[in-house]
């Protein structure tokens, strides 16, 4: 009886423990569901199509996941106007509030980055950062005064269109465009260009807890971010590769390297690997350069450089054409990308290194190929011309000779004794014409 009661109590204890664990899990899951979630995207590159795509994906995910806010940590010198406009439009259309935070210390929101900062529901900066210098930089050269004024007015109107609705200082914002004015965090806060200064993410979110914000459509919203869990959004492998490839220095390396590999394939057909790899590299380079503003005059310089290098290789000379080709190649590479900020341009060191290396390699390879094609293949009797032979029998005037380990029929211009040395001076089909070695004139021999 006592044993049965003991088993019953053990069973009750196990059931109670199971219920307790289940309740604890339920409370944990409930608390986790109640905890605010903040999606975080790190943008620390130039503003170009890849970064615009990253932001678009992050906003879409934050909206679909039900995140309370999207935190964009930004450090950028600026970039392309079209990409910036796309990013601003995505932020303004986002259902989830977007916080743009210039961080960490030493970061900046320059040029196009300033437009993005001002478009956010909450604009914040870390100590030791800067924002502004948003004067329009023309990607394809400076236009005339009228066109320049139109573009600047358009940029200012675009900035005013949402800065006013965000309740920020329109005049101070426009000054960043018109006068390239830059602001420290303290200046930006005093000028009502940003909403706060925060040392880190945690301090930023704690300061925003319970704060009421006005969305772009005029609706009010209170933020509840106490104890928020930050989920850092990882950049996809595709975007990482594109971000690396869209660097013009990398794109040019791919373009030049691919062109050389394709040339090697044409000179040694059938190897396949150089041709396939070269084609892939060229296609990737063209794809990357297609995402960037390209100057067509620079493309003409590159074409002229290739022509000059080929002429130098084919016709030879004193290197003048090669030098001209390398100079054209260097200037073409330096001016190929119409970069609105220096960080998007081609490095002078990279351009010079690629140009010199490509120029020299091209000249050497083409010269070798031209010489190989001009050199006629010599086989059979023709290959024996100039070789010394030994008369296997008296040549009166015909007989047999041993040349290069082979026995050939030969005819001599005069009688030759057996065992004498002769030299092949020509042939009539398969009959060699020979002459005694003593009869072959050498430089310095008297006639």
From TrEMBL:
Key words of the record: Membrane, Transmembrane, Transmembrane helix
Positions of the NfeD-like C-terminal domain: 381-436
Keyword Transmembrane helix: yes
Alphabetized Pfam families for the sequence: NfeD, NfeD1b_N, NfeD_membrane
Topological category with respect to the lipid bilayer: Multi-pass membrane protein
This protein's name: NfeD family protein
Residues spanning the membrane: 241-264, 271-288, 294-313, 320-341, 347-370
Domain named NfeD integral membrane: residues: 249-366
Source organism of this protein record: Candidatus Sulfuritelmatomonas gaucii
The keyword Acyltransferase is assigned to this record: no
């Amino acid at each position: 009886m006592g044993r049965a009661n003991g088993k019953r109590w053990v069973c009750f204890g196990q059931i109670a423990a199971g219920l307790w664990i289940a309740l604890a899990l339920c409370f944990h899951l409930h608390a986790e569901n109640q905890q605010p979630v903040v999606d975080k995207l790190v943008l620390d590159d130039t503003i170009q199509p890849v970064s615009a795509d990253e932001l678009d994906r992050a906003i879409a995910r934050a909206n679909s996941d039900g995140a309370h806010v999207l935190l964009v940590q930004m450090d950028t010198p600026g970039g392309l106007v079209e990409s910036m406009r796309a990013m601003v439009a995505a932020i303004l259309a986002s259902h989830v509030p977007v916080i743009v935070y210039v961080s960490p210390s030493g970061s900046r929101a320059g040029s196009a980055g300033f437009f993005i900062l001002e478009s956010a529901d909450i604009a914040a900066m870390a100590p030791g950062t800067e924002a502004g210098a948003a004067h329009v930089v023309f990607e394809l050269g400076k236009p005339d005064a009228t066109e320049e004024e139109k573009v600047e007015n358009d940029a200012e109107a675009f900035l005013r269109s949402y800065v006013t609705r965000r309740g920020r200082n329109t005049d101070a914002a426009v000054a960043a465009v018109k006068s390239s004015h830059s602001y420290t965090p303290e200046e930006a806060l005093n000028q009502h260009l940003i909403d706060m200064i925060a040392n880190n993410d945690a301090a930023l979110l704690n300061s925003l807890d319970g704060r009421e914000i006005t969305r772009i459509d005029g609706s009010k919203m209170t933020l509840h971010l106490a104890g928020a869990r930050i989920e850092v959004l990882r950049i996809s492998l595709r975007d990482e590769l594109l971000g690396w490839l869209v660097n013009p220095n990398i794109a040019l390396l791919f373009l030049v390297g691919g062109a050389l590999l394709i040339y090697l394939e044409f000179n040694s057909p059938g190897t396949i690997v150089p041709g396939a790899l070269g084609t892939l590299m060229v296609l990737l380079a063209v794809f990357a350069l297609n995402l960037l503003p390209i100057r067509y005059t620079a493309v003409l310089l590159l074409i002229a450089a290739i022509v000059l290098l080929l002429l130098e290789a084919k016709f030879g000379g004193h290197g003048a054409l090669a030098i001209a080709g390398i100079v054209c190649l260097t200037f073409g590479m330096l001016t190929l990308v119409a970069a609105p900020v220096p960080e998007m341009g081609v490095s002078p060191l990279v351009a010079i290194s690629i140009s010199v290396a490509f120029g020299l390699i091209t000249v050497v390879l083409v010269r070798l190929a031209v010489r190989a094609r001009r050199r006629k293949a010599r086989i059979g009797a023709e290959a024996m011309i100039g070789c010394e032979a030994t008369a296997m029998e008296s040549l009166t005037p015909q007989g047999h000779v041993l040349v290069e380990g082979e026995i050939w029929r030969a005819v001599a211009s005069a009688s030759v004794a057996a065992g004498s040395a002769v030299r092949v001076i020509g042939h009539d089909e398969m009959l060699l014409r020979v002459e005694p070695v003593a009869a072959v004139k050498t430089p310095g021999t008297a006639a």
